[in-house]
């Protein structure tokens, strides 16, 4: 049921790819405001398909996805652009403009608020430039403001991506394997920054993770996928490693 506090809701969502593969098979769940959800499962279980169906990077074939009560499958044009502003995305590969400065990369998060010609010319208000500094402070990277992105470590790049997302002022952040290419210590730092989005900004976070250990450590709730279906959905503090292991058994692989 959708309440005023529900940020994300999947209602009977299925996705069949053109080759016949059922990426998602009747997915139902809702996420209240400020919850940190980890989605775990084997490679090919449907985690990316699930995440990408929220901001319409893929089109679902059945059901509805609601963000803040609005059915994302029904919005077009300006409304779609507006809806996408509410959804921040964090990727495994960071998706920064490597040759641009940290400042430019963070300001790019504001793109949805400007006409395209202004962003192409790099015209951002002084207010937004100050905001970029504020966001970088939150991820402890303000000292890198004028450094080029390609000079940063993987962990620093992901934190720039988090600051960029904050510029959007999102209500929901989706992170697809955000720490998959980082070492364990750096991963912990990035996970903590994601956790802080929930803690200090009350942002709802949905993160695809390979690591059950990280899911148990940072998430409020763990959703397990297998062959496109939800096979596990429980609070993290009521979960244990042995039960979670079940998600990884009996799969196709
Ligand atoms: N564009 C596509 N066309 C056809 N089938 C696809 C496509 N993308 C994904 N699939 C299939 O859909 C299923 C779910 O894939 P998905 O990438 O969502 O899984 P995942 O859990 O994110 O895996 P990984 O961790 O490897 O990214 C898999 O069987 C996959 O092969």
Automatic annotation (TrEMBL):
Ubl conjugation recorded as keyword: no
SUPFAM superfamilies, per database record: P-loop containing nucleoside triphosphate hydrolases
Keyword flag Translocase: yes
GO molecular function, one term: ABC-type phosphonate transporter activity
Transmembrane region(s): none
Signal peptide location: none
Any one GO cellular component localisation term in the record: membrane
Domain ABC transporter as annotated: residue spans: 8-252
Keywords noted in UniProt: ATP-binding, Cell membrane, Membrane, Nucleotide-binding, Phosphonate transport, Translocase, Transport
Descriptive protein name: Phosphonate ABC transporter ATP-binding protein
Organism: Fructilactobacillus florum 8D
Taxonomic lineage: Bacteria, Bacillati, Bacillota, Bacilli, Lactobacillales
């Amino acid at each position: 049921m959708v309440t005023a506090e529900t940020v994300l809701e999947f209602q009977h969502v299925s996705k069949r790819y053109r080759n016949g593969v059922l990426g998602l098979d009747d997915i139902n769940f809702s996420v209240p405001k400020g919850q940190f959800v980890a989605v775990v499962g084997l490679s090919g279980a449907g985690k990316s398909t699930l995440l990408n169906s929220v901001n319409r990077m893929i089109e679902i074939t059945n059901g509805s996805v609601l963000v803040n009560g609005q059915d994302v499958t029904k919005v077009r044009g300006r409304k779609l652009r507006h809806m996408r502003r509410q959804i921040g995305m964090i990727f495994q590969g960071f998706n920064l403009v490597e040759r641009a400065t940290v400042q430019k990369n963070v300001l790019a998060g504001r793109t949805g608020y400007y006409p395209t010609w202004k962003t192409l010319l790099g015209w951002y208000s002084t207010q937004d430039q100050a905001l970029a500094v504020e966001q970088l402070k939150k991820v402890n990277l303000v000292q890198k403001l004028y450094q080029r992105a390609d000079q940063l470590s993987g962990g620093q790049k992901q934190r720039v991506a988090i600051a960029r997302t904050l510029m959007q002022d999102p209500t929901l952040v989706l992170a697809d394997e955000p720490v998959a290419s980082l070492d364990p210590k750096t991963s912990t730092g990035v996970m903590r920054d994601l956790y802080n989005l929930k803690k200090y900004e009350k942002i709802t976070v949905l993160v695809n993770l390979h690591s059950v250990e990280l899911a148990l450590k940072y998430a409020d709730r763990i959703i397990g996928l297998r062959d496109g279906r939800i096979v596990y959905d429980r609070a993290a503090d009521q979960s244990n490693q042995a039960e979670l292991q079940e998600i990884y058994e009996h799969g196709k692989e």
